[in-house]
Amino acid sequence: MDKFVVQGGRKLNGRIKVSGAKNGSLALMPASLLAPGTYHLSNTPNLRDVWTMSRLLNSLGVFCELNGNDLFVDSTKVTSFEAPYEHVKKMRASFYVLGPLVARYGQARVSLPGGCAWGPRPVDLHLKGLEKLGAELSLESGYVVAKSSKLIGNKFHFDISSVGATGNVLMAATLAKGNTLLTNAATEPEITALARMLVQMGAKIDGIGTSQLEIEGVDELKPVNQETIPDRIEAATFLIAAAMTGGKIELTNVNPYHLTSVIAKLEEAGCEIDVNADKIMLEMSDKPNPIDLIATTYPGIPTDVQAQWTSLMLAANGTSKVTDTIYTDRFKHVPELIRLGADVEVVDNSAIIKGGKQLSGAIVMSSDLRAGAALVLAALIAEGTSEILRIYHIDRGYEDFEKKLTSIGASIKRVKTELI
Ligand code: UD1
Description:
The protein has 2 domains: 2-17 and 230-416, UDP-n-acetylglucosamine1-carboxyvinyl-transferase, Chain; 25-227, Enolpyruvate transferase domain (UDP-n-acetylglucosamine1-carboxyvinyl-transferase, Chain, Alpha-beta prism). It has helices spanning 22-31, 48-59, 85-88, 98-105, 124-132, 163-174, 189-200, 232-244, 260-268, 303-314, 333-339, 369-380, 392-397, 401-407, and strands at 2-7, 13-17, 38-42, 63-67, 70-74, 82-83, 107-111, 136-140, 143-147, 155-157, 179-183, 204-206, 212-216, 225-227, 248-252, 272-276, 279-283, 293-295, 319-324, 343-347, 350-354, 363-365, 385-389, 411-416. 32% of the residues lie in helices and 26% in strands. It is an alpha/beta fold. The strands form 6 sheets. The protein has a 4-stranded mixed beta sheet, with helices on one face. Strands 2-15-17-16 form a 4-stranded mixed beta sheet. The protein contains 14 helices and 24 strands. The structure holds uridine-diphosphate-N-acetylglucosamine (UD1). Uridine-diphosphate-N-acetylglucosamine binds at residues 23, 26, 92-93, 121-126, 160, 162-165, 186, 190, 302-304, 326-327.
């Protein structure tokens, strides 16, 4: 197993090219099940979750080859309709294959994901939405078994705005007979990008980018080539890294519009930011101001950024509060930050951060992807050496994380370890 060894106290300065969005690719890849044929998905991030999705699609008979950041997919011969526990337990986004399989092939057997590191994370909305379209669902030995001779368009309201459920039901609705109206649909850029790909494939979707999606079902779709949007969470992570070290960074291959709320918060925290087409420049000359943050649905601050913001606030002189309204238990990074000397208390779904204390290097453990990133960020401002264990979590969602950080002046090394 690998760990990161980080020497704190360096200012970050330089340019980073942002990778394609992990959550974007994880939605686009299963869409290939909707239309047999070959796809080229460019700007695909070369990281563990994409490999896991590739392996899952392989197990269904779909050929996937990732060459650098070019993903070639051939879904001509789907030979299995089962997403085994082995894959789904590694990555919840595996559940995305359910909608396309039942819509295109009339059958699917997909393992239920179970809990995750920060709470139960149900899939009831995926199931209710597909049932509304006429899929017959049953639960057998931990698997959702779905059948349908032909899905039928219908109205479905998501009680909670859900990225995954919107993606799943949207994909299914494209091949349903008749019209579907989805309300309170997720508007996250990765879902908008999925909808755009589906339209390229021949789907009829109105209201893209809004919470109301109207889909007129079509008989068949065709394969396409598609570029994955930039990763807004990776971008936010590097902006925060530069801000907390009092550094200067230029991000390229980024969509600043997707980061409007994050940029506004960073400016409140005292960063100077310029945006220009597909670039973001950030400079921070002082300690950050203590700024509260509430993670919510798009276009609000993403829950996937709250852990990193908590680390930023450790550098602020004053008290701030970070609240997560999406995943109310997502604070596994806090006890590890405390091991680095942070003064943070979790109260209900908020972290109360008393910033300004000098952190000191320690051995800490990642519990999930963004928690892991938050620990690396905190280690960047800690005195001395920190070791971050279980970095396979970080590898799930950041492409070349340590290489990118090293390129802007961080001291971070990947080292093999016996510690787990
Ligand atoms: C996606 C992202 C994840 C991000 C999250 C929220 C991917 C692969 N992952 O996860 O990185 O943190 O969006 O932006 O894109 N919910 C239900 N029932 C359901 C589904 C969700 O109650 O059937 C609830 C969840 O518990 C949560 C909220 O809805 O409170 C939003 O979750 P959701 O948007 O579905 O997250 P994911 O799609 O799993």
